[in-house]
Specification:
heterodimer, A: alpha+beta, Folate-binding fold, 4-stranded antiparallel beta sheet, two-stranded antiparallel sheet, B: alpha+beta, Gyrase A, domain 2, Alpha-Beta Plaits, 6-stranded antiparallel beta sheet, 5-stranded antiparallel beta sheet, 4 helices, 11 strands
Chain lengths: 95, 188
């Protein structure tokens, strides 16, 4: 599988490490009233879609960037790749 | 107590082997210093690099040669590397002084080992171990990339039409040399 890195171009998937669902970017607020439930969901509950899936990949054997990759789990077709920090910044997080 | 003096020696120092039209050498006195652009201080760091070296830090995946023979490599949005020839073990201080502390600098000289592959069949010799497309259209002269060859992390830089500089971890220098030489022998 080839992942088209937004800065570095097409790279072999062997250079990357897979983390999982991109929802892991949205860590719950630990001080919220419902923090216990929120962290249970955050830690244990995942969707398992047959189709497009947003997931986190780490370019370990490359520029060490985190990516949010939109991949179809049934065909491995990749439709979008963004830098995870751009995704976090677009939600008003990170500097 | 007797006085000992320790002399540092790069793991592949002096390696020089010829395979037909190909030559595999270990560059002498290679010094490497990594650059990290501070969060919020990216522009100041870029400006300091440009005034110190007379060349701007290029786009990620590119490198540029400066007038004094150093090579500036951009590895990612906030990361770069200065590669130059320097015999004494104070490379980090030299770069930090030139940049006046505008970027974070870390000495990488002893951590990496270098191999230079030159000759017309250089690209063919790498095609079995390098997962990147090294054709002119995809990897032009002065392009640089971090990748993995034989499971070893490698920074590959195209230093000329038929020459590549390969940098890998010095702790696995012997395995890296073996991987490259095996690939050369398998392709010639």
């Amino acid at each position: 599988m080839i992942i088209p890195h937004p800065l570095l171009g097409p790279r072999d998937a062997a250079e990357f490490v897979y983390l999982g669902d991109a929802a892991l970017i949205d860590r719950p607020d630990w001080q919220a009233e419902d923090a216990l439930t929120a962290f249970h969901d955050y830690g244990y509950l995942r969707d398992n879609p047959a189709g497009p899936h947003k997931e986190l990949w780490y370019h370990e054997q490359g520029d060490r960037s985190w990516l949010v990759v939109t991949r179809d789990t049934t065909t491995h077709e990749i439709t979008a790749v963004e830098l995870a920090r751009d995704v976090a910044r677009s939600r008003g997080r990170s500097a | 107590m007797p006085d000992f003096t320790l002399t540092s020696a790069p793991p592949l120092a002096g390696h020089d082997k010829t395979f037909g039209d190909l030559r595999l050498t270990s560059p002498a006195d290679l010094a490497l210093v990594s650059l990290a652009l501070p969060l919020g201080g990216e522009d100041a760091a870029q400006k300091a690099i440009k005034s110190a070296y007379g060349a701007a830090l290029p786009a990620p995946g590119k490198s540029v040669c400066t007038k004094d023979g150093a090579r500036l490599v951009r590895l990612g949005p906030d990361a770069g590397m200065v590669i130059f020839t320097h015999a004494t073990p104070d490379a980090e201080r030299v770069v930090a002084d030139r940049l006046n502390g505008a970027a974070y600098t870390t000495d990488q000289t002893d951590v990496w080992t270098g191999l230079e592959l030159t000759g017309p069949p250089a690209r063919a010799a790498l095609e079995r171990i390098c997962p990147l497309d090294l054709h002119d259209s995809a990897f032009a002269v002065d392009d640089a990339a971090r990748t993995a060859m034989e499971h070893l992390g490698v920074l590959i830089i195209r230093t000329g039409q038929d020459s590549f500089l390969l940098l890998s971890a010095s702790s696995s220098a012997g395995s890296f040399l073996h991987a490259v030489e095996t690939s050369i022998e398998n392709t010639i």
